[in-house]
From TrEMBL:
A biological-process GO annotation: phosphatidylethanolamine biosynthetic process
Pfam families found in the cross-reference section: Choline_kinase
Keyword set, alphabetical order: Kinase, Transferase
GO molecular function, one term: ethanolamine kinase activity
Broad EC category: transferase
Source species of the chain: Fistulifera solaris (Oleaginous diatom)
Pathway in which this enzyme or protein is active: Phospholipid metabolism; phosphatidylethanolamine biosynthesis; phosphatidylethanolamine from ethanolamine: step 1/3
Gene Ontology CC: one annotated term: cytoplasm
SUPFAM superfamilies assigned to the protein according to its UniProt record, in alphabetical order: Protein kinase-like (PK-like)
Protein name: ethanolamine kinase
Entry's family note: Belongs to the choline/ethanolamine kinase family.
E.C. no: 2.7.1.82
């Protein structure tokens, strides 16, 4: 169903609506500091979805537990019994993500079994399947599982076609990279001088954001090939968004909130840059951890084998490896601008977004200089 259905439910002041075959409580909100509101929202959705019958073995008071791993969102595990648990997500990054589009997209990904099962939505979040016996990868573990990650990413790119009711929001002819960069740049320019501390204002000023329109045009004109293929991309494949099943070693991609139509190779470049680390733990990425040329080639070769459903030619492998450079550059600006806007919206007390932005911009300049 179109994301407009969520807006319609709010305008009609519905207590609960059924959208994408799942309940939506448009006026039920969760306070991340109040476990009682977490339990209230989870239970409303569980009871509506399951008619309570699936949870008849509950013996004790449900338990609410805050989970680590969320960057822009708050995550909670709600345990009704050892057999029945759900993940509750409280949305963050207010104003940076259209949650109606994102939620409808998540529902579509869930139907295709690319994302975890979707249970329902409330005003500022949703309830999802909790994946047992899994954990997020650590940054330094990504290289140990890079071939499985390549396979999972290729499977998503190959097998998820945007459904017709979402084509308006994810148009195939319009990669989101440039639109997103321009939008975040405009937001960042409007925030100049308005950050919460003088230090953050000074750091933002040092980024010379006023020159970025020309920089983006240079990237578009000279670094990104016009023939680069586009697909539905994850756009945020960092370690925390890759779950490892600890019993069978399989990989599950999660957190598709930045997902959209984009250049296929951007998704791979983004993942490679995440080898350096960053949010939610460290604002100082270590670019000595980036994948080696051999790892990149192995990843690309494995990816193309799945995506093309055939053994790739050496020419195809080398072409993708060459394409990576421009997308690696663009990716530094992408998350650098994101971090500037996060610093404005949320401040830097919990995580130093502004320092992270400074470091991504520095690495952009280093990589650009290396190409000369």
């Amino acid at each position: 169903m179109s994301p407009q259905a969520y807006k319609d439910a709010r305008e009609k002041k519905c207590t609960v609506a059924v959208i994408d075959e799942r309940p939506y409580f448009p006026f039920l909100s969760v306070d991340g500091n109040d476990p009682a509101t977490v339990l209230q929202a989870a239970t409303a959705i569980v009871q509506h979805e399951c008619n309570v019958t699936a949870f008849t073995d509950v013996q004790e008071e449900p338990v609410v537990e805050r989970l680590s791993g969320g960057i822009t969102n708050l995550l909670f595990l709600v345990t009704y019994s050892p057999q029945h648990k759900v993940l509750l997500r409280v949305f963050g990054a207010e104003g940076m993500i259209d949650r109606d589009i994102e939620n409808a997209t998540f529902a579509a990904l869930s139907l295709k079994r690319i994302a975890p099962a979707y249970w329902g939505r409330f005003a500022n979040g949703r309830v999802e399947q909790f994946l047992e016996n899994t954990r997020p990868l650590l940054v330094r573990e990504m290289g140990h599982h890079h071939l499985k990650i390549a396979q999972a990413l290729a499977n998503m790119h190959r097998n998820f076609a945007v459904p017709s009711h979402l084509e308006e929001y994810h148009p195939l002819q319009k990669p989101s990279l440039w639109t997103q960069l321009e939008e975040w740049l405009e937001q960042a320019l409007q925030a100049l001088g308005k950050f919460r501390t003088p230090q953050d204002c000074d750091k933002a000023a040092s980024l010379s954001l006023e020159t970025l329109h020309q920089e983006l045009q240079w990237l578009r004109d000279t670094q990104i090939p016009s023939h680069a293929p586009v697909v539905f991309c994850h756009n945020d494949l960092l370690a925390a968004n890759i779950l490892l099943h600890e019993q069978n070693g399989s990989i599950q991609l999660i957190d598709f909130e930045y997902g959209g139509i984009n250049y296929l190779t951007f998704d791979i470049a983004n993942h490679f840059n995440e080898y350096a680390g960053g949010p939610p733990h460290d604002p100082f990425p270590n670019y000595e951890w980036l994948p080696s040329p051999a790892q990149r080639e192995e990843f690309v070769r494995t990816y193309l084998t799945i995506y093309k459903n055939e053994t790739p030619t050496e020419e195809a492998v080398q072409q993708m490896l060459q394409e990576l450079h421009g997308f690696l550059l663009a990716n530094h600006l992408y998350w650098g601008l994101w971090a500037v806007n996060q610093a404005y919206a949320e401040g830097c007390e919990t995580f130093d977004y502004m320092e992270y932005a400074v470091n991504r911009f520095k690495q952009y300049a280093i990589c650009k200089q290396q190409d000369k």
